[in-house]
Amino acid sequence: MKVCSIAAPASAEEAEAIQDALRPRLDLTGPGPRDPALVAGVDVAYADDLLAAAVVVLDGTSLDVVEQVTVPGRPAFGYVPGLLAFRELPSLVEALERLTVTPDLIVCDGYGLAHPRRFGLACHLGVLTGLPTIGVGKTAFVGSFEPPGRERGSWSELLLDGQVVGRVLRTQDGVKPVFVSVGHRVDLETACHDVLALTPRHRLPETTRAADRLSRSALKAALAASGGPRPRQ
């Protein structure tokens, strides 16, 4: 698959300007793919100045692995909250371009609209790929919410400046919820439906779990080859 790319920003101000310029391209009406045939999970593991980006494509019904790609590299940008996508995008874009199949949905371990400038990694990848994307965060990055009910499927609104930027979704009975926000070409209702389909047994989507394992494994291999330190947990 072909992914549009952008030059790495030279400063935080330039990175914010890129986010502002790309935000109007977002399609937030969806509705997006309900029960997609192929779903990709993306994740990045770090160790000091090294990283490993991973993309895992799963069958949307069986959740079996269809294809997986890893790309080792180095962060392309400094650590700035709200601008973390710029650290990962070059390696993630390269990994996505190496896929021989095109996923119907990309699930990011992070955020979409639930972001200080309403343009998290899921939004950025959505604009660059043109594909439907959603973000599923482990914790709340921004916004306020009421705890959802304890039953699987319960949810509450995630609010930022009085606007709904996502949902706090319970994927398993009695476990901590996840934070779902749309990125591009998916509406929030469809995003939550798909997240529940991807979490039949565990709190996090199988796409996220598979990409996390693969990125950590790839990083360990890269570190072993370089004789570097252990990866961050």
Write a compact overview of the structure shown.
With 233 residues, the chain is an alpha+beta fold. It has helices at residues 12-22, 85-97, 121-129, 188-197, 206-226; strands at residues 38-47, 50-59, 65-73, 105-108, 133-137, 155-160, 163-169, 178-184. It is 27% helix and 25% strand.
Structure explained in plain terms:
The longest helix has 21 residues. This protein is α+β, with helices and mostly antiparallel strands. It has five helices and eight strands. The model has no long low-confidence stretch (mean pLDDT 92). An eight-stranded mixed beta sheet has the order 3-2-1-4-5-8-7-6, sandwiched between helices. It is globular, with a radius of gyration of 17 Å. The chain has a single domain, classed as archaeoglobus fulgidus dsm 4304 fold, CATH 3.30.2170. Its EC number is 3.1.21.7. This is Endonuclease V. Its cofactor is Mg(2+). GO terms for molecular function: deoxyribonuclease V activity; magnesium ion binding; RNA endonuclease activity producing 5'-phosphomonoesters, hydrolytic mechanism; single-stranded RNA binding. DNA repair enzyme involved in the repair of deaminated bases. Selectively cleaves double-stranded DNA at the second phosphodiester bond 3' to a deoxyinosine leaving behind the intact lesion on the nicked DNA.
